[in-house]
Amino acid sequence: MEIRALRVFLAISREGNMTRAADELHVSQPSLSKMVKSLEEELGTKLFVRRSFGLTLTADGRLLRERAQDLVAMADRIEDEFADLGRLAGGTLHFGLAESVHIDVLARAIRQLREESPGLRYHVDSGVSAQVLGRLDDGAIDFAVLAHEPDGAKYESWAFPEPDVWGVVMRDDSPLAGRERVRVRDLVGYPLFCSAQSWKLDIPRWAGGLMGELRLEATFGLPYNGAVFVREGLGVLLSFAGLVDTSEGSGLAFRPLEPRLETRLHLAWRRNRPLSPIAERFRELCCG
Question: Which of 17, 271, 9, 234 is nearest to 155 (CA)?
């Protein structure tokens, strides 16, 4: 299966129209049709269904689209890395980031690297640690920022200098907003929002034997989305300080947990996997 055929397939799936895809790729429509037919014969299945309004993917086509996006992205990364070998004037870095106010540490290192290497390009995806760690394992990213210490047998890592501090985001008219700090028993009876990973790994460290009395209402990978539900009065959000706007007039308030709960971020990269020259230089700038 050729990468070029997968690029064609993805273009057609995006456009839903053979003519527009041909224009995007600067090839003739008959050539595209021939490549799609050849790909379908190779895979032994139909990938598109022709409708009056254009082309739609079959169930097998949707599965291929998911796989093809990963393969094409990896092919692009390989091409970029080999084009940039031996030079630091440019290059491409890929990051997967957990949410934190301390991401500014990473941003400053990127700024320094860009001053040294004006041709630097970088891509950033956000997500919970489990998601970005999976992308690091697959080779889709160079570095992952995780909200837990990674397995030292598989990854090398560097701990961020300052920890993130946990607290509760609530409406500013909530009874909890009248407290300076929030204890476990204060949250009993409240519908709680939290990331699935933190509910499993972080909150039990704080709640201890009272964990069973807390009620998880829903999980959110991004604190902003959880804050929207808080604003509607659906519950309160357990989150790092600084990730949600709780300034005066926002309608929300933040109170730290008591006893204090902290999580330290880690920058991780795969052990025994060579870094590109630009990635190695970034590591030096960020981690010292």
Answer: 271
